[in-house]
Design brief:
This protein is an alpha/beta fold. Helix content is 35%, strand content 14%. The protein has 9 helices and 9 strands. The longest helix has 21 residues. The protein is globular, with a radius of gyration of 20 Å.
């Protein structure tokens, strides 16, 4: 690059989408992969879990320990990054207030920003006492699933009648096949979590436009976003409950999502954001963020550790 050239602005949406496409083309569906190492991906220093798309991106890396650090944090611990190791992108929403040019009212907008992290396995000389031991989870801890279901605020009615699972926005009701109809009890809860995520879009909860829109028909954009939201959200809940499921990914299923991602670079980031809001509503409603994302600028300042 010559001295007169301006560095190309990084398109964060496209970079994230390319990562997910890469995984899909390898035959892996990253949002269906259970967390490894006993914990979701988290920052080693703050202990904060990475959320939304970041949890998916970091977990797909398959490190033995799900702890990450910024370059500065590695140095602060007296460690160093191993030669040849590459950093991993993390994205977050920076919320600012702007004055509307017409109404002069203050409005909140969020901007997609990014920063870089390294896994502890990419580093050396980090004090071992700083790295928690890997905890072995009981993958049959079904009471944890019941706690999630029963703890949901404004929970819709759950009935066991028809042989198919569905959520009806009009009735605000979930139907589940009997538990004995499933090959594994984990599959029952994973299916129930999927329907619970759908139910968070009801007007009495998050009022998600993709669920309540009249054009939410098979194959439409709203239908695809809502289904991906439910899939990603249910996988997050599976992991919180300690469920480990072997998921077989068909060629047709993967091809469908590849086509959607290649059509719209914002698709995966938006759907994962909606999934995180849904999970927050079910697990911790006060964390739900209502500001919709707007892409205008990127950067790596104001890191949320």
């Amino acid at each position: 690059m010559s001295e007169t050239q301006t560095p190309k602005k990084l398109d964060v949406y496209q970079t994230v989408t390319d990562r997910i496409i890469e995984e899909l083309e390898r035959g892996k569906v990253p949002w269906q992969q259970p967390w490894i190492g006993g914990v979701p991906p988290q920052n080693l220093i703050s202990g904060k879990w990475y959320r939304g798309i970041n949890s998916m991106l970091l977990n797909s890396l398959n490190y033995s320990r799900n702890y990450f650090l910024s370059f500065q944090q590695v140095q602060d611990l007296g460690g160093r990054v191993l030669k040849g190791e590459k950093a991993h992108m993390i994205v977050f929403w920076k919320i600012i207030e702007k004055e509307d040019e017409v109404t002069k009212e203050k409005v909140k907008k969020s901007f997609l920003r990014y920063y870089l992290v390294f896994n502890v396995d990419q580093c050396k000389d980090i004090p071992m006492e700083k790295i928690p031991e890997v905890m072995k989870k009981d993958h049959h801890s079904i009471p944890a699933c019941e706690d999630i279901v029963n703890g949901m605020p404004l929970k819709p009615e759950i009935i066991h009648g028809e042989k198919e699972a569905w959520y009806s926005p009009a009735k605000d009701c979930i139907n589940m096949p009997p538990m004995e109809n499933f090959h594994y009890v984990e599959g029952y809860y994973a299916t129930l979590f999927h329907e619970l995520i759908h139910s968070t879009g009801h007007p009495s909860r998050l009022e998600r436009k993709e669920l309540i829109s009249l054009d939410s028909t098979m194959g439409s954009e709203n239908y695809s976003i809502e289904e991906l939201t439910a899939e990603i959200g249910s996988c997050y809940l599976n992991s919180f409950a300690g469920i480990a499921l072997e998921i077989k990914n068909s060629v047709g299923y993967i091809q469908h999502w590849l086509e959607k991602l290649k059509e719209d670079k914002r698709f995966i980031v938006y759907a994962s954001s909606q999934a995180q809001k849904a999970v927050d509503f079910i697990l911790n409603p006060e964390k739900v963020e209502t500001v919709e994302p707007v892409l205008e600028e990127v950067g790596n300042d104001d890191l949320p550790f």
